[in-house]
Design brief:
- By secondary structure, the chain is α+β, with helices and mostly antiparallel strands.
- The protein folds into 2 domains: 5-123, no CATH class; 144-211, no CATH class.
- 36% of the residues lie in helices and 26% in strands.
- The protein is built from 6 helices and 7 strands; from the N terminus they run βαββββββααααα.
- A 6-stranded antiparallel β-barrel has the order 2-3-4-5-6-7.
- A hairpin with a 2-residue loop joins β6 (84-93) and β7 (96-109).
- α2 packs parallel to α5 and α3 (145-157) runs parallel beside α4.
- It is globular.
- The two termini are 19 Å apart.
Length: 212
């Protein structure tokens, strides 16, 4: 199950301090950027700041500027005004899968002491977040709606005795079940799914079922 850590135990950078964070190709530093829901950290990244663009307005979407963080080779923009991070989200059109973006409430956390329990907890959340995103990326890479149905069913089977079968039509409902299953699955189950999605012969229902 996804780890939830009370955010009150961590100190975050305020808007004034954010303006002095170091970015740049050579001298950009790494920072903890965390997703916050109901007072708890539910996702985390240890990300390099590409540049500090506090004075930049991008299509008027960032009135106070933004911070572009490099995460897994992609750029995630942190909106200074709203304290929100733009992250990729799976979008489906008919039977094809694509990426879109969504905004989540986020904070930039000051680094806890290296050997502290707070640091170890953050590292655990980061590992979990990266694992979930790896599954999403591999699903979208297949561009195959049927694979999303199968993987969702396999994920549900790891925690639900009588998983709800897909009706093959309700795309939005299927994506919601997929995300809900990612939330509650244990890490080993997620690793198994990620390994399965990496196989060259994965893209047939028979291969998926047999490997599960």
């Amino acid at each position: 199950m996804r780890i939830r850590v009370p955010v009150k135990h961590y100190e975050s950078f305020n808007k004034s301090e954010i303006r002095y964070l170091n970015g740049g190709k050579l001298h950009g530093e790494y920072y903890f950027v965390v997703q916050v829901i109901d007072g708890h950290i539910t996702g985390a990244y240890y990300a390099k700041l590409r540049n500090n663009l506090q004075s930049q307005r991008k299509n008027s979407s960032y009135p106070a500027g933004y911070l572009p963080f490099l995460i897994n080779g992609q750029e995630y923009n942190f909106d200074i005004e709203t304290s929100q991070l733009e992250i990729p989200e799976i979008f489906s059109y008919k039977t094809q899968l694509f990426w879109t973006t969504k905004r989540i409430n986020a904070l930039i956390i000051k680094s806890p002491a290296f050997e502290s329990g707070k640091r170890r907890l953050l590292n655990r959340v980061i590992v979990r977040t990266e694992l979930e995103q790896s599954v999403r990326q591999k699903i979208v890479h297949t561009k195959n709606y049927e694979n999303l149905e199968i993987i969702t069913a396999l994920l549900q089977e790891t925690w639900e005795k009588n998983p709800r079968p897909s009706d093959g039509v309700d795309t939005k409902g299927l994506l919601q079940r997929f995300e809900s299953s990612l939330d509650v699955c244990d890490e080993q189950a997620l690793r198994n799914i990620a390994d399965l999605l990496s196989m060259d012969h994965l893209l047939t229902p028979a291969a998926l079922t047999k490997s599960a």
